[in-house]
Amino acid sequence: MIRELVVRAAKSRAVQFVVVGAVLAALAPAQREDRKITIAGANVDDARIDDEVLAREAVRIGLGTDEPVVRARLAERMRSALAQSLPPPRIEEAELDRALAEEIGRAPERMRLAVWFVSRERSGAATIAETLAREVREAKRSEPSLLSGARGAEPPEREVRADRGAGRGHGDRPPIPDDTTWTEASLASVVGPHAAEAAAKTPVGAVSDPVASAWGFWIFAPLERRPALASEVRADAAARLARERSAADIAKAVRRLRSSYDIDVRAPRVDPDRSPARDRAPTEGATN
C-alpha cells in the first residue's frame, strides 16, 4: 500500500520533489530490495555507473519502465527530478564578485555602430550602396567629428546616384534598433554572420565597404569598442554560478544514491594464454 502511494506520487509533477527527497533520505531496510547492480563491460567509468544507478532508481520510484527504449532516457529524467527537488543554490556575495570578474574577462567585446543600409528591393542596390559608402567617407574627411557622436552618425545630406545617374536617393532605414550596444554574436543574429564579422573588423572611426546580406547591403562605421561592463554580465555570471552549484549539488545527491546500492563492475575476462599472434591464420609458405 505504501509503495503504491509512493509510485502514484512519483508520477505527479506537483509532488515529484517530495518523492525524490525521500529517495535521498536514509532508505528503510524494507525498501532495500534488489539493491545490487551488475555492470559488465570494458572501461566502465563513473558516468556509466551514475547512469545505471539513476535509471534503476527512476524505475524503482515509478518515473519510467525498464524497457530499453524508455530506460535510455531515465537517467536524464532522474537528474531533472533531482534538480527540481533540491533547494536553490545559496550564493554568497563574495562568490558572485569573483564570478563577475571572470565573466567580464571572458565576455565578448561590445561595440556601438553607425549603420547605413540599402535594401535589395531597390534597383541598382549594389551600386547605390557603393556610392553611399564613398559619400560617407568623403563626409567624414570633410567633417572628422561626423562619426564621433554618442548617438551615431546621420547619412550625409547629399544625393547618392545609382547606375549612370538613373536613380538617386540615400540609404534605407536600417531594419535594426538604433543606438544599440552589440556583440558580434548579437549583431550576427539580426544582420547575418558575414556582415557582423565585417562590422567587428572595421576599425573605430573607419567606414566599411558595403557588405551583402539576404536583406540588402550594410555599411558600418564603429563608434566605440570596449570590454563588457559589470552591469551587462552580472545576470550571466549569477546564472553560470547557479548552474555550477546546482551541478555540484546534483552530483552529491547521485553519490548518496550510489552509496545505497551494491555495485559490481565486471570487466571482460582476458585469457593470458591467447595472443593476437596465435589467432592469426598461417601465411602461405609457412613451415611447421
Explain how this protein is built:
- The structure is a single chain.
- The chain is of the alpha+beta class and 288 residues long.
- The chain folds into two domains: 2-89 and 242-271, no CATH class; 108-226, Chitinase A, domain 3.
- The chain has eleven helices and six strands.
- It has helices at 2-10, 16-24, 46-61, 68-71, 74-85, 93-106, 125-142, 184-191, 193-201, 230-259, 276-279; strands at 36-40, 110-119, 181-182, 211-212, 216-226, 262-266.
- The protein has a four-stranded antiparallel β-sheet. A two-stranded parallel sheet has the order 1-6.
- Helix 2 (16-24) crosses helix 5 and helix 3 packs across helix 10 (230-259).
- The longest helix has 30 residues, at 230-259.
- It is elongated and about 85 Å long.
- It starts with a helix and ends in a 9-residue tail after the last helix.
- Residues 9-31 and 149-169 have low confidence and may be disordered.
Quick one: CATH class of the largest domain?
Alpha Beta
What spatial order of strands do you see in the largest sheet?
3-2-5-4
Major sheet characteristics: 4 strands, antiparallel
What class, by secondary structure content? alpha+beta
The number of helical runs is 11
CATH fold topology of the largest domain: Chitinase A, domain 3
The best one-word shape is: elongated
**Structural domain tally:** 2
Using the 3D structure, state the CATH architecture of the largest domain.
Answer: Roll
Mean pLDDT metric: 77
